[in-house]
Amino acid sequence: MDLRAPGTDHRAAVLGTWDVGRGARRRRSARRRRAVVRASPAPLEAVRERLAPDALVWFRTCKTLGTRSGIDFAERLADFLGARVAGHTYVIGFHQSGLHGLAPGVRADWSAVEGLAEGAVDAPVRAKSSRPWAPRTITCLHGEVPPAWFSATT
Question: Taking Cα atoms as reference points, which of 66, 75, 68, 70 lies closest to residue 134?
Answer without folding.
Answer: 66
